[in-house]
Every structure is written in structure tokens, then in C-alpha cells.
Amino acid sequence: MSNQLLQTRFRSESQGTAGSSGSLPSDLIASSAARVRIVGMAMGTVWAIILAANVVLGPGFSASEFPGSGGWPSPNWIFAATGLAGSLGLILVSPRLQHHPRLVLDIGLGFEVFTAALIALISFWVPEPHAARISWNCALILLFPAIAPSPKRKMLLASFAAASMDAMAFFVARSRGLALDWPVSYILWMLAPGYLCAILALVPATLIRYLGLQVSAAREMGSYRLGNLLGRGGMGSVYQASHRMIARPAAIKVIRGDLLSSDPELAATITERFYREAEAVAALRSPHTVQLYDFGQAEDGGLYYVMELLDGIDLQKFVEKFGPLDAPRAIHILRQACESLQEAHHNGLIHRDVKPSNIILCRLGLRVDFVKVLDFGLVRREDPKDTRNRPVESTATLGTPSFMAPEAITTSEPADRRADVYALGCVAYWLVTGHQVFEGDSPMQVMFRHAHEEPVSPSKRINRSLPEDFEAVVLHALIKDPGSRIQSAQELADRLGLCEDAGVWTESEARRWWDEYGRALGST
Q1: Do 349 and 376 meet the contact criterion of CB atoms below 8 Å apart?
Q2: What distance in Å separates the CA atoms of residue 367 and residue 361, rounded to the nearest whole number?
Q3: Closest to 306 (Cα-Cα) out of 373, 223, 364, 385
Q4: For the chain, how big is the Rg over CA atoms in Å?
Q5: Tens-place pLDDT, residues 466-478
Q6: Which residues on neighbouring strands pair with residue 237, listed in sequence order?
Q7: N or C end of the chain: smaller count of CB under 10 Å?
Q8: Which of the residues 353, 369, 420, 501 is marked catalytic?
């Protein structure tokens, strides 16, 4: 797939959906907006019943129970009638905005606060102390997110605003000159249930959002139908998938739609990285680079791309599960990773996030111990004049702290291919020791050590001998000064190939290992 074709397709598929991103699929958002009208109908019915009941029953109450004329205090008739009018207005307006469901949800949140204010004014127009007083607004605050779910931040803001209406009505009563010399502790105790309910409202909101994400994940994306969840990260999830027409298995990486709706600047950054990764991977042909099949934008606004499904395990989990590797197998793995990066560097692409979790050891056809490099999400072009290197990141420090080259930490200049070599040296260190080159209590401490401290040799780190020629190559890749470091992935592969243990790990040994342990690894 050519770069021009990728760009054209990305832009065409993005049109019309950029503004529709969210944590829920668009059809679920539409159904939630439809329920806002139901809320209006329900509250309108309640207000009508209250008005009708007080017409019939109000005169039967004594003036001592309800000071004023004729039973119910006269301003409360105005509040109830206002509530009925507002409910009717919501019923009439919401269908006219059916093509703007998010606006309807926002209006619904405003209606929640509006209704809470009326309930509070009625409750506190002639306030009386009670031993255990719980506002009717508590029911409204708890039920509203379940009936008409909205984004959590907006819902939480509306819930706290609704809870604050009781306090507002209480101070309105005091401003009218009523003698409300209640203890402050009692007033706080009286208002506390509303705020507690505002916090508890997060439970139905979070549950509904989670169910919405599950429904979204179950939907078809392009020509692919999603299956089991393979992994989840901060920016999204990876699912097993299958093509609807052909029997080709695949994996789909889905970037969360709510990330694209919460912050326009962050959305632009994520979208740019998504485009660059799709463009970069599509241009690479090395068998050791994960293959890209397709990409696009889902109905909920989330970005996704389809890649080959790998039967294997990443090197981070591999070492955690099986322990450090011997030098021969580590050399076998590293040289394959070098081939992927060398092609990327030849095409002017810098990975910038080489780490064990982005390198998969897998079974591919009849081959085993086959390496695939993936996750080119931070890729950039080495040529600073390339217009596709426009600055979309909010910071110049990018990557994973434990695998960042010193020059990427200490200088503002963009790192080049030698930063990937350094990161691959860190991967080599991890493979044979089970430890990161530098560890610390915080990412900043780890980065400081990468920038200023010399690494302990792998053999001393594990108190076990390693081949001297292999250890020398690893330490040469970890030199602070990029000018003195191994200069390219190809040079690193060549140096590893000259080690005495190169070629010692054979296909038959690899096959025996996979026959014994491979079934427990699953797919990635």
C-alpha cells in the first residue's frame, strides 16, 4: 500500500467521524439521548401528579403544617408548575435535536440540575429539622446517570451541581429572614448524603461506559470481526480478529475513542502518530516487521489498524516467564530484530520505542523463534527537512525511560538511528540478565542514570560468566556518546554474527523448545 494511497484513504475515512468520537458507540449514544426525552416525560408526570394531589389534598392540611394560604405554600405551586413546563420543553426539544445526540445529553445534564434546584426550593421553602433527613435529590442524582449516561467528567460535574442545590435552597430560605439557627454540624450532616450520592453516581456511569466499550469492541471494523481481547494498554486494546470473507486471522489495535474526544490537542497528537505508524509499517517489507493489513476509523471515532496475528510472546514476558537467555539464543533473536530496524533506517525511519515488549518471539508457519518488531507509534523520519516530521508531540522526550538513549534525554535535537541501536543494546542486556540496564524509583531517576552513569557489565550484574565477545558488543551498543557507539543496526548485526556463539543456537534446538513450551504462549 503506497504512502499516497494511505494518506488519501485515511483522510476520506476520517471525514464525518472526527466529531463523533466518544467512549460509547454512536448508536448507544443516540439511544441514551432518546432516553433523555423519557426522563422529561417521567419528571413531567411526577410534577403533574404533585400539582393534582395538592389541588385535591392541599386544602385538608392545617395552616400549622403548611404556613401560608390554603395548605401548600404558594411559591411551591410556581416551582412545580415551572418543573412541569421545563419537562414539557425537554420533551418537545429533544426530538428536534435527534441528529445531535451529544447536545441532547448535555441538555439532559442541565435538566438534572434544573430539576434538583426546584426540588430543593420546594423542600426548603419552609425548612424543618429532621433527625435523619435525606433529600429527594439523592434519588435523582443516582438514577440519572443510569438512564441517560454521559461522559464521566460531565456527569460528575452535573451530579455535584445537583447536590449543591440543597445548600442553595437553604441559604435562599435564610435570606428570606427565616429563623434557621441550626448548628453548622447539623447542616453539614443534612447536606452530606447528596454529595455522597454524587460520588456514588460514578458507579453506574463507569459500569455503563465499560459495557459500552465492550459493545464497541464487539462490533465489526471494516471487513474484520473482533474476537478475544489479547491485551490492553493506556491508549487502547488489541483484539484477535477474523476477516469476514477470507479465513485470514488478524489482530486489531484499537485506540480508545474517548482519548480523541477529551482533549483536541491530544487527539491531534494521537491521530498523527496513528497515521505515521500506518504509513511507516506499510512501507516496510522485512519479514521481521509486523505486517499491516488495513486501517481506518470506527463508528465511535476510535482509530484502528489491522495487522498480522502472531503466535508467540513478547520478550518482556518471555524473560519474566522463562528467565534470562543464554548468549547463543540471544544473538539469534537480536540479529533478526536488527534486520527489521536496518530496513526502517534505510528508509529514513527511526523507531524511537525499541523495547522488549515491542519485539515478539513467535512461530511463523514452519519456522520457530522468529522475531517480529512492532509498535512504530513513535516513528519519525530521520531527515529533519521531511515535512512529515511536523512537531505533534507536546514534549521532546519520547520513548520508554528504561530504553532511552542518553542523547534523547539530554539534548533537544531529535535522536537518530543510533538511539535505536542503544535501545537494542538495552534489550540485549535484558535478555541475558533479566534486569534493565538502569533501575530506579522513578522514571526521572532512570533517565538520569542512562544519561550520566556507566552500566555494570551483564556478567557482573548476574554474577555469572558470559562470552566476552558478546558482552563487548552489548557494552559497545550502550556507549553514551553516539559517535563512539555502534553506528547502525546492520553493524550491530554484523558484530553479533562475528561472536563465537553465533549460529550455536540451531533450528532443531529451537523446535524442541517450542514443542515443549510453545502451546502455552498463545497469540499476540
Answers
A1: yes
A2: 11
A3: 223
A4: 31
A5: 999 999 999 999 9
A6: 232, 254
A7: N
A8: 353
| Residue located via cell numbers 476520506 | 12
Helix orientation angle between 315-322 and 417-433, rounded to the nearest 10 degrees: 20
Which residues are CB-contacts of 514 (< 8 A; sequence separation ≥ 6)?
363, 368, 369
Which tens digits make up the pLDDT trace of 88-146? 998 898 888 877 888 888 888 889 899 889 888 888 777 666 544 677 888 888 888 77
* Global pTM value: 0.59
> Following CA atoms 259, 227, 219, 29 in sequence, which dihedral angle do they give, to the nearest 10 degrees?
-50
Dist. CA 9–CA 27, nearest whole Å: 24
- What is residue 18's DSSP assignment? G
- Please report the pLDDT score of residue 220 as a whole number: 65
- Residues 319, 431: contact at Cβ < 8 Å? yes
Most confident of 21-25, 52-56, 178-182, 499-503: 499-503
SS3 of 204-254: the string is: HHHHHHHHHHHHHHHCEECCEEEEEEEEECCCEEEEEEEECCCCCEEEEEE
* Interatomic CA distance for residues 195 and 432, integer angstroms: 54
310 within 8 A of 371, measured Cβ to Cβ: no
Integer Cα distance of 260 and 270 in angstroms: 8
Neighbours of 263 (CB within 10 A): 11
Q: Is 167 exposed, middle or buried (0-12, 13-18, 19+ CB in 10 A)?
A: middle
Grid cell listed for 432? 541475558
* Phi, psi of 228, rounded to the nearest 5 degrees: -70, 150
Which residue(s) pair with 269 in the sheet? none
Estimate to the nearest angstrom the gap between the alpha carbon of 182 and the chain centroid.
Answer: 47
Cα–Cα–Cα angle for 281, 380, 395, rounded to 5 degrees: 130
Cα separation, 403 vs 382, whole angstroms: 19
Check: CB of residue 428 under 8 Å from CB of residue 477: yes
| Active-site residue, 353 included | yes
